[in-house]
Give the backbone structure.
Amino acid sequence: MSKKIYLYGNWKMNNTYSETEKFFTEFPAAYDAVKADDLEVGIFAPFTSLWPLSQGAKKCGIVFGAQNVYYEPKGAFTGEISIPMLKEYDVTHIILGHSERRHIFLESDEVIAKKTKAVLDAGMIPVLCYGELLEEREAGNTFTVMERQLKSALAGLTPAETAKIIYAYEPVWAIGTGKTATPDQAEEVCKWSRELIGQKNAVILYGGSVKGSNAKELLSMPDIDGALVGGASLKPASFLEIYTAYKG
Ligand code: PEP
């Protein structure tokens, strides 16, 4: 049996409510043509698109989720969205620590750790992103940076909790830039992460300009369990092509 592939799409700040409805007029037929036991597809939409996403995703039987959440359940936190709010939409998975949250919105390791714990406590699955900036890689600090990010998010968690997390290694220099890590670079980090996490069966995705043309070589690496996809996830064809290219 071939390994299970996780194909998760991060729409970022794209696809309005009506654009999400339109996406799901095309997606079901495209998904029916590729769906397989060894494929898990997930889509992560902006909060305002979660309702049409949840309706479309449930019909197709795919995973769906949000791109962020706050760790407190309610209160005076203007502009934030809580875990109970997302639960009412049947959200099960939440992206945390995406590099755009870390670097544009200045989310600290400490905040990401609190969010990770809160999501696990709620019985939901964090999709925990981590990765280095170009200058950190060039200065030879890739592993130091990622060790700090991962250790801080995992501190105090039980092995059962760390096993539930889905990890996403996303080198910041490869996100939305068209530059992809080479399969060897991505594999080196994912293998190293698996040891640091201490879970042989941890699910570790690679993210950074994944598309049909580079999917096969990346997803064939032994420690890469799937892809977190930004740009190519916005259209059903370019998204699902990542899986068919891997299989083809
Ligand atoms: C992402 O948003 O996590 C991502 C990897 O984006 P892209 O595929 O566009 O590089």
User: Anything to note?
Assistant: The radius of gyration is 17 Å. The chain has a mean pLDDT of 97.
